[in-house]
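Troubleshooting log. The previous run stalled partway through. Resubmitting the same six chains, unchanged.
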Amino acid sequence: MDKSTYRHEGLLKSVVTTLSQESQLQNMCHMRWQGEPLPSQAVIRRIIELCRSVLFPGFFGVEGVNSYNIEYNIGMQCEELLNLLDNQIQAGLILALCGEEYDAEQIGHRARDLAMLFIAELPELRHCLQGDVRAMYLGDPAAVSCEEVIYCYPAIKAIGNYRIAHTLLSLGVPVIPRMISEMAHAETGIDIHPGAQIGNNFAIDHGTGVVIGATAIIGDNVKIYQGVTLGAKSFDLDDDGNPIKGIPRHPIIGNNVVIYSNATILGRVRIGDGAIIGGNIWITDDVAPGEKLVQAKADNILRFKNDE
Amino acid sequence: MDKSTYRHEGLLKSVVTTLSQESQLQNMCHMRWQGEPLPSQAVIRRIIELCRSVLFPGFFGVEGVNSYNIEYNIGMQCEELLNLLDNQIQAGLILALCGEEYDAEQIGHRARDLAMLFIAELPELRHCLQGDVRAMYLGDPAAVSCEEVIYCYPAIKAIGNYRIAHTLLSLGVPVIPRMISEMAHAETGIDIHPGAQIGNNFAIDHGTGVVIGATAIIGDNVKIYQGVTLGAKSFDLDDDGNPIKGIPRHPIIGNNVVIYSNATILGRVRIGDGAIIGGNIWITDDVAPGEKLVQAKADNILRFKNDE
Amino acid sequence: MDKSTYRHEGLLKSVVTTLSQESQLQNMCHMRWQGEPLPSQAVIRRIIELCRSVLFPGFFGVEGVNSYNIEYNIGMQCEELLNLLDNQIQAGLILALCGEEYDAEQIGHRARDLAMLFIAELPELRHCLQGDVRAMYLGDPAAVSCEEVIYCYPAIKAIGNYRIAHTLLSLGVPVIPRMISEMAHAETGIDIHPGAQIGNNFAIDHGTGVVIGATAIIGDNVKIYQGVTLGAKSFDLDDDGNPIKGIPRHPIIGNNVVIYSNATILGRVRIGDGAIIGGNIWITDDVAPGEKLVQAKADNILRFKNDE
Amino acid sequence: MDKSTYRHEGLLKSVVTTLSQESQLQNMCHMRWQGEPLPSQAVIRRIIELCRSVLFPGFFGVEGVNSYNIEYNIGMQCEELLNLLDNQIQAGLILALCGEEYDAEQIGHRARDLAMLFIAELPELRHCLQGDVRAMYLGDPAAVSCEEVIYCYPAIKAIGNYRIAHTLLSLGVPVIPRMISEMAHAETGIDIHPGAQIGNNFAIDHGTGVVIGATAIIGDNVKIYQGVTLGAKSFDLDDDGNPIKGIPRHPIIGNNVVIYSNATILGRVRIGDGAIIGGNIWITDDVAPGEKLVQAKADNILRFKNDE
Amino acid sequence: MDKSTYRHEGLLKSVVTTLSQESQLQNMCHMRWQGEPLPSQAVIRRIIELCRSVLFPGFFGVEGVNSYNIEYNIGMQCEELLNLLDNQIQAGLILALCGEEYDAEQIGHRARDLAMLFIAELPELRHCLQGDVRAMYLGDPAAVSCEEVIYCYPAIKAIGNYRIAHTLLSLGVPVIPRMISEMAHAETGIDIHPGAQIGNNFAIDHGTGVVIGATAIIGDNVKIYQGVTLGAKSFDLDDDGNPIKGIPRHPIIGNNVVIYSNATILGRVRIGDGAIIGGNIWITDDVAPGEKLVQAKADNILRFKNDE
Amino acid sequence: MDKSTYRHEGLLKSVVTTLSQESQLQNMCHMRWQGEPLPSQAVIRRIIELCRSVLFPGFFGVEGVNSYNIEYNIGMQCEELLNLLDNQIQAGLILALCGEEYDAEQIGHRARDLAMLFIAELPELRHCLQGDVRAMYLGDPAAVSCEEVIYCYPAIKAIGNYRIAHTLLSLGVPVIPRMISEMAHAETGIDIHPGAQIGNNFAIDHGTGVVIGATAIIGDNVKIYQGVTLGAKSFDLDDDGNPIKGIPRHPIIGNNVVIYSNATILGRVRIGDGAIIGGNIWITDDVAPGEKLVQAKADNILRFKNDE
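Second attempt completed without errors. Output:
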């Protein structure tokens, strides 16, 4: 029998009471009886696993795919995907209503339709990712094969999650797209907002620290390196001193652009087709098509001997 | 029967013998009979889960929180938290003694008291995180609701872990705070040392690559972006050529300061209240209150056409 | 019975058929009957766990190591390691043949020999990591003990994985080294290509965003901070407009060099012994031994008051 | 590549097709889209765990019950029990309709009400089991304490499951009671039909092979041993040669009766109060109150020396 | 540090050494390098799960079977079944060689062929079990539906495992059939040797304690109750005093026979078609067709009042 | 939002309150703060796994035992066994004190010593089980090899658990022996009280329903079949009408005795060396050495035609 336990029992009870008080819970608690279900992180994770497994059979998810079982496998997984998505989209739609009354049956049908519309996009999603894989393989001297790119490169996970999330967001699914892109963010350090519009054959190398904002537009055949930010200047505030929401505020990147590591491009600027942006540069103005910008080193660095 | 196995068996045994030799194990092995227990990464992870679940009920941990069960839930979790913390703090205290003799009963009581003191801080911790959530919601044009911030934003995890770790460190708990902040670092790419002092309504956006050093001090209503370093200049070495430990060596940031992406602020400099630090800047001197610093682009970038 | 299910059943079947078509699967599917096994991410993860457990007994993997059981523990784990590695290397060797015919028995023996050669390197690997741990402890004013470095510092995981991956690559093992380094990349945000050559007593602080390229060479006693890139300039393209593969294209870093946060060093440049590279600098030329480079701040930043 | 695989692929596909044919599936397949959900063995198992944990706190289920947490624990478990039962009863009610149309909302409310009525019976169930435990302790010379009876004796599991199943059956819940009693049957070898009516202070010793039929009635303070059957004579058949269903056909056992191992009592006979039935006896007629029956050994056994 | 640990360390080591000595291990140890693999209990358990899931879709194994997915499901499971069986049969064949040399490739092909032959029997197995289910439903007044029989009755598990095991044994698979029947024995208390030959429409009620020997032959439409033994008289011994192996030594039961609870029938006797054997009878001679035997009660029981 | 939920919330709370009342919990609740820990079913199950793995290496527990790893394996498992046993014995000793005060350190040392004494018995236990395996192999015409007996026969599990439990009981360990024998009872239907004394080369065939009482004594080379009871007559009651505890009340069986299925032997009778007891017999008197008893069939069965 542990005496010290007794000393603390009353205190413990009183902390519990405080933490359970409604006043203390303001905005910090999601109730499920008086409020409503929340999309589940674990289920969304499973949804991403299923998408990866269906889009890249044999690389992710189910092992041992072959000509005998490929249709069985994809058939089973698409059904699971449909059911989980249906259920999660329903939770997302209700969450987005912020407590307004709703018709449960109608929400149910809408969720099922949205889930099915997403499923119908899977062939197009695979086609699109095929282009990204090829671009990544061709653009990286260290890449040994497309298989290595699919299986080992974090950017494929980040771009894959982005394309899934963007498709869902375009269909009108709330909350879940953001959860999907944050999962890739945690896995890879690459943070692409699902609202961004990104063209074909998109490549990211290394990728840690990349940030692509919600209203960014990126053309075809673009390649970016680690630490690149396509952000908002975001100095404009409303009357209450808070950033104004919903305005196009991130860069528009043309086709065939390369952006090297740690470059920062801010605001609704246009980077013209074929431009090359060198590393560690900070850009808040338009760049003309075909222009190439690099940091001016000469004036920029002080050199002296260690013992000075 | 696999013949090649025999070929290797003797070699395998001899590697095992070498790897088990005391001389080979110098500093690389933690023994438990002659030495003592180590705080467990898995248990600390569970402790963080419990804290998140108790601080943000219904968002993390237990699903389906409602008015019927909220007190039961929090009651159960606080007890588990108390017991796990008690146990881990004990391991931490013994580890910090580095092999010195100790009175097990006394250590046991101290650990239990420290665990209970931490539990008693939970309501204050929740209150503090409420401010951070609100600041993050108000400061990000892309944020849809406080719920989205709590549920999706990695910075909430990083700041949450920091506030938990800082509370433990302030109570005198060794080792465990660092483990907690490294968990957030791995999850989010945000590296906040538990020793840093951070005011209310703190916001981080995107966050990958943020580094906040052990002796940094940050005021209220501060907002920082991805890749910001609040570091030490750290060129000062002792007689043996090693960095001197324990000296205040990180910046002091005032209230209402904004620091944009990839800015690097080094050394015990002061950034005055209301200052705005632009992205990709390298600062090793004080900045006056209300000052706004941005990179001088004009002289800094070479522009030429791609075919030059 | 859910009517809406019927509505979607036919559509679902047709998507499944499309996704299973051979034409749709081009490069995106890894088959196992007509093709061959793939190294398993889960098994490689277990291999890394075993390596960490054997190299740092009592810190990772098995708990409660002591003088009674250390040889039993290491003996059990080395055998599991040998068997798993054997199996994975075999998968890697076959994958690297890209569908060419092969002699299964011969591949089997080669895999077993390679696995055993790796096991034989474990004592040397531990010795080497001992140096890295000590360097990290001595070089960080915030480090409390070598134990804290081993147990809490992400860089130890990244450097450990690198040294394991580099050893395997040097032995001629394909694919798996890259998988191992990407695991550390995901865990720590530190991306070290297994092809890089890194000397003794290597230290990384914080580390998020560090990129070290495939042909980089690093001397002894080097220390680098978060966000440092040792990359390729990579503007040279072949006749098809793709980067040329296999050329030495990353920097050579001398002994006793320090490189501060977010510095970018590109191309086959030489950084001389004892050089110090300040943060946020972009370097594409050689740096002489003992030279110290820092960003020229004065001309580089525009200062104005917030209300201007 | 395994050649023998090819040989079998076609055959495998054809077996799969045969096994999937509707004609082959007659009565052997439970479909969920065109048919309806089935109560889940795994969930029912969890329901039994929860009942045991709530009825015998600290012995089963949650460990470490104490005065601080007992109400939290029971509160959490009763809610989980209510929700799981609700859901399973719904599945049971629909299954029992055998494909008839139904009003889903009405079934839902009925299931919830039944689940709640069961919860309301829990205090009475515990009271009743208290009597069984005491009877088992007092009646077994080998029993050390009531705690040992609760924790180690299989009969407590079998009688507990029976009392739970009987309560559900009495409320009108279909299918699930039988599943619950078969779980105890598998665990203990004791097969008590949930339809049986059993009085207070019921004791079973050892228990393997005990069978108590659906229409059996047992008084208070009865004790039975392993291998006892209270069965139906069941020689009466209907016009089709099948046993007639639904008729009272099992014994009525009075109060204070003891029945020793392997006794078989068949048909709607009455065993009077206080009767004692010896082992290995076969009874198909009434036994008067207070009567004691034992096998007549003398005439019943042939004795000879081994070498005869 | 626990002093008592030291006291025991040496003793522990010496017990370990003793237990590892080859002389001590005689017959009690199965080695895998110098010996060979053993069929795995866990894998055999999975094989049974798969069989049940494929034979009774929607009742066991995969949940939510429907017209969309039934072929996908059965297709996936048959492949897993084929692969696991292949592998286990190989282990069984090698084990049965008791250390003799063998041609691994030849054994591999034989195992694959045997596994495929079993798969080809699945439709017939399902057909056969359909008859057993119907017989059980028609023969039990307490049975509500065929679904209840499939889902709740332990005898279906025991008879199912028997039919699977018997099919494998008939194909010449060693060891595994016995493992499969012992699994049902543990689950249900019904012990049917895989060598027994059992006709169509076989029913067992309750079943605990049923034993059916290796050379027993049972006709069609037979029904037996709990505790029935169809055993060997087995008093005949060889010159060493051990029972002689391999001789037909268990009963032959005709068609349409019913055997009530705890009846014991021993030796190679014939029970004629349509016979009825009452409970608790001990039979070692033939019974004529149509005969009905019951225990003679009158002379067999002593009755007296409790207080005599 | 589910309205029906609200209806039940109040009722649920009130049931919870009732179930948590101290008065309701009488004897039915095991508290851990005011009371003390309970031996854990899950840990005891692990202890049995470890014993089986150590006693029959390669058959149970760890797979892939070979000459390289056998000592490592047994070394690791003996240590785990020692620690788990130590801990569980401590719990058992405290439980047996029924709330009396005790010296925790003293109990700790006694538990450790008892655990170590058990470990020291392992070689003898293995030797003893070797005899049982051989007896079972020689005595069963259906047994193919000793390996099959070890791997498939439930009786080996039951006898193994008995010998472990008996050893612990003989050392003075309370509660845990009974838990161990009940585990085998649930697994096999064989119920051997740990207090029974059983000689060498003991064999049980089939075994379901076997009961061997606490004070039974069994000689060497004894073989028993399914359904055999060695029980107490147990008609003697104390003044309160309860069975008197602690008296020798079960049979003494000599050497070389065979007891066939469903025989019941009750009370402190002696069955002489070499006796053979036929099936379905009920014995309450001594049997002379070498005697053979079988049921007298002739007078015991009524025969008539089915249509009579």
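Takeaways: Chain C touches chain A through 77 residues (CB under 8 Å). The first strand of chain C starts at residue 191 and ends at 192.
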